[in-house]
Amino acid sequence: METYVISVIRDSVAKLNVDVAYERKNEIAKAVEKELGKAMSDYGYEIVRTLIVDIKLDLCARQAIRKIAEERKAEAEKILQIKRAEGDAKFKKAIEDVLRNSGLNFSEKVPGTYVAPTRDT
User: Fold this and answer.
1) pLDDT greater at residue 106 or residue 3
2) From the CB of residue 8, how many other CB atoms can be counted at a distance below 10 Å?
3) What pLDDT does 12 receive?
4) Are the beta carbons of 9 and 32 closer than 8 angstroms?
5) pLDDT for residue 86
6) Which of 113, 118, 82 lies closest to 100, judged by CA?
7) Is 107 helix (H, G, I), strand (E, B) or coil?
8) What is the pLDDT of residue 59?
9) Phi, psi (5° rounding) for residue 91?
10) Any long-range contacts for 73-81 (C-beta under 8 Å, 24+ apart)?
11) What's 53's DSSP letter?
12) Nearest-angstrom CA–CA distance, 83 and 111
C-alpha cells in the first residue's frame, strides 16, 4: 500500500516545482485520497481522509536547491560590487568636475593664473 501511495504522490507532484507542491499539499492529499480510495475499495477498505504533513525532498533535490540559492547569492553580490564601483566612479567624476570648474572660475577672476590641463581636458 505504501508503494501505491508513493506512486500516486509522485504522479501528482511530478509536474510541479517545489514551491507549488508546498502550496498544493491539500490538493495532493485529495488526489491520494481519491486514487487510494478507488484501489482499496476492491479490498473492502474505505479511505476517509488523507493528510500530508510535510513534503521532504530527497538529497539530490535539496543539494540542487542549495546550489541554485548559492549561485543567485553570488550573482547578487557581483551585481552589488559592480553598482558600488559605478557609484564610486560617478562620485570621483563629480569631484573632478567640481574641482575643474572651480579652477576655471579662479583663473578667470585672478589675472595671470591658468588651469593646467587634466587627463580629461
Assistant:
1) 3
2) 19
3) 72
4) yes
5) 92
6) 118
7) helix
8) 84
9) -65, -45
10) none
11) -
12) 43
Name the amino acid, one letter, at 113: T
**Of the candidate ranges 41-45, 91-95, 116-120, the one whose mean pLDDT is the lowest:** 116-120
Q: In the 8-state DSSP scheme, what is residue 115?
A: P
DSSP for 2-41 reads HHHHHHHHHHHHTTS-HHHHHHTHHHHHHHHHHHHHHHHH
State the pLDDT at residue 121: 47
Are 13 and 28 a contacting pair, CB within 8 Å?
A: yes
- What's the alpha-carbon Rg for the chain, to the nearest Å? 33
Q: How far apart are the first and last CA of the chain?
A: 82
pLDDT of residue 20 exceeding 60: yes
**Single-letter amino acid code for the residue at 12:** S
